[in-house]
């Protein structure tokens, strides 16, 4: 996927990580941002210990941070 993109963005790299993980049941969402000024990919999971066994610490030279997030429910607005 990324080999087709000349200069992949952080968003492209996050999308490639999501595709690589193949939507496991513990995955809630993947986001992008920064940690202490360093661009990062954030993986939000409801089972952090399980996520740590599958999620690499870096992806395409970008640090990956795993964060705990419980199950999401839609807001009733």
Q: How many DSSP-defined strands?
A: 4
What's the structural domain tally? 1
Separation of the first and last Cα atoms: 37 Å
How are the strands of the largest sheet arranged? 1-2-4-3
- Secondary-structure-based class equals alpha+beta
- Poorly predicted spans: none
Order of helices and strands: HEEHEE
Which descriptor suits the 3D outline? globular
Mean pLDDT: 92
Structure summarized in a few sentences:
With 77 residues, the chain is α+β, with helices and mostly antiparallel strands. The chain is built from 2 helices and 4 strands, in the order αββαββ.
Key descriptive features of the protein:
alpha+beta, 77 residues, globular
Characterize the structure shown.
With 77 residues, the protein is of the alpha+beta class. The protein has one domain (2-68). It is built from two helices and four strands, in the order αββαββ. The protein has helices at residues 10-21, 48-54, and strands at residues 27-35, 38-45, 58-59, 62-68. The radius of gyration is 13 Å and the shape is globular. The model has no long low-confidence stretch (mean pLDDT 92).
Topology:
Elements: H1 10-21, E1 27-35, E2 38-45, H2 48-54, E3 58-59, E4 62-68
């Amino acid at each position: 996927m990324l080999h087709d993109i000349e200069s992949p963005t952080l968003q492209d790299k996050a999308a490639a990580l999501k595709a690589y993980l193949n939507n496991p049941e513990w995955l809630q969402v993947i986001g992008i941002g920064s940690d202490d000024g360093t661009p990062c990919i954030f993986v939000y999971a409801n089972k952090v210990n399980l996520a740590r066994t599958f999620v690499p610490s870096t992806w395409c030279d970008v640090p990956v941070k795993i964060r705990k997030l419980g199950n999401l429910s839609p807001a009733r607005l």
